[in-house]
Amino acid sequence: LRAAFPYFAAIDERAAAGAAAALAPAYLDSAATSQRPLAVLDAEREFLAHSNAAVHRGTSGAVGAATGAFEGARSLVAEFVGAATPEQIVWAENATDALNLVTLGIAEANLGNGVAGSERFALGAGDEILITQAEHHANLIPWQRLATKTGATLTYIPVREDGTWTIDDARAAITERTRFFAFAHVSNVTGFVAPVAELVELARAVGAVTVLDACQSVPHIPVNFAELGVDFAAFSGHKMLGPNGIGVLYGTPEMLSALPAARTGGSAITRVTMETAEFMPPPLRFEAGTQPVSQVVGLGAAVGFLTKIGMDRIAAREHELVERLVAGIEELPGVRLLGPSDTSQRIALTSVAVEGLHAHDLGQYLDEQGVLVRVGHHCAQPLHRALGMASSTRASVHVTTTEDEVDRFLAAVRGAQQYFGMEVSA
Ligand code: PMP
Which atom of ligand 1 is nearest to 236's Cα? Predict the structure, then answer.
């Protein structure tokens, strides 16, 4: 499989040629961004070389072909995440942008720039927006802004000692005044998997709209938004073997048609006068301006690649890797695993804090050993604060990860403890 990725093929070639293992990087940072298979790079290149054109405008055959590729990718992505129709898939720049499309759209609805059905999003003093303390800043700051704009109150589910939270914690935090409930499917720090369907049920009971940050789930496990019952969901192409610069906002037809466009301009309209504009139905209403067509085509190819392997197989393979990581970490004295030790409650990544060792020192040592991980707060400062630390070290996997890479990470953490003179009894 690694041979299908130019990035890994080059590393493996070097290793096979006898280069020192430390020089062949162990890429354990797919949670930040994943490497792209040749199928994706080829699809982008092929499109740009032979079919490049701006979509949905003009009458030429070239535009028709580009539009076909663009809309074809939308259908593939829709099917991949269980959307009933392609119109439920809105292109955005990334997950951050997709989440902002929701919060900025709600703000527009409350500023009087609504569309039919926007009353659904009325928000004001006394209303509550519920999130969790474990959110990535992308699913926190946009809600802070929306609360400030509308006078609503931002409330949150606090995390427990291990960074997780339960359905009972959610039950205690949700109220009759909760209008929106936004949470990550999978935490990018703890790997904890939220019980989405049950949470949606809680939200529905109080009439709250649900917004799922699916950044760390869609690339790794089978995800069906319709079955989960969420109203909106967001994810990024670059974490699922696809291109940068393309993300997805999923919405139910009811929600998307009631949401005003946060960004306006060309392409997204039906009739414009000097005073007014009328907008297209979703998804085109949200896609003002010239679109990133080659990225969309690349994302379609990434979905095709993942589907060909099978998301069930990918999930099973990554589960083995995470079990190996968790078991290895738990054997290391002085190393604290963030998130649940029960591997049935987590996927895709592990973060650790090493007693007496700053994450950046550890990161630098790992880097010198050729082990590529992520150190810092991972855009989740409140979560780290709740866990009693400023930063942590995260190793994340994808379907290309090998046991050897996992073992090199574990050995290098141990090596760092020795290098920095930690007194840890084995
Ligand atoms: N949410 C989560 C859980 C993430 O892991 C990330 C990426 N680190 C984001 C949101 C933001 O994704 P992007 O930077 O692609 O917009």
Answer: 15
Buried-state track 91-104, b at ≥16 Cβ within 10 A, e below 16 = bbbbbbbbbbbbbb
Q: What is the 15 CA–ligand 1 centroid distance (Å)?
A: 32
Q: Is 319 in the pocket of ligand 1 (CB under 6 A)?
A: no
**pLDDT tens digits for range 85-117:** 999 999 999 999 999 999 999 999 999 999 999
Atom 8, ligand 1: residue with shortest CA distance: 32
Which residues, in sequence order, are bridge partners of residue 89?
250
The answer to whether the CB of 215 is under 6 A from ligand 1 is: yes
Contacts 24+ apart (CB under 8 A), 6-11: 6/38, 6/41, 7/35, 7/36, 8/35, 8/400
pLDDT above 60 for 22: no
pTM score of the predicted model: 0.97
pLDDT digits (tens, 9 = 90+) for 333-361: 999 999 999 999 999 999 999 999 999 99
- Distance, in Å, from the CA atom of 143 to the CA atom of 83, rounded to the nearest integer, reads 25
Token pair, residue 257, equals 């048609």
Please list the active-site residues.
Answer: 379
Helix (H, G, I), strand (E, B) or coil at 357: coil
Q: Is the CB of 101 under 6 A from ligand 1?
A: no
Q: What is the Cβ-side half-sphere exposure of residue 95, based on CA atoms within 13 angstroms? A: 28
**Both tokens of residue 282?**
């979703």
Q: What is the pLDDT of residues 188-246, one digit of tens each?
A: 999 999 999 999 999 999 999 999 999 999 999 999 999 999 999 999 999 999 999 99
Ligand 1: which residue has its CA nearest to atom 6? 215
How does DSSP assign 305-316, residue by residue? Answer: HHHHH-HHHHHH
For CA atoms 256, 261, 266, 271, give the dihedral sign: positive
**Helix 293-309 and helix 38-50, axial crossing angle in degrees, nearest 10:** 150
The neighbouring-strand residues paired with 154 are: 129
184 lines ligand 1 (CB under 6 A): yes
Give the 3-state secondary structure percentages of the chain, helix then strand then coil, rounded to 5.
45, 15, 40
Nearest CA residue ID for atom 3, ligand 1: 188
Cα separation, 412 vs 325, whole angstroms: 13
Closest by alpha carbon to 405, among 9, 19, 29? 29
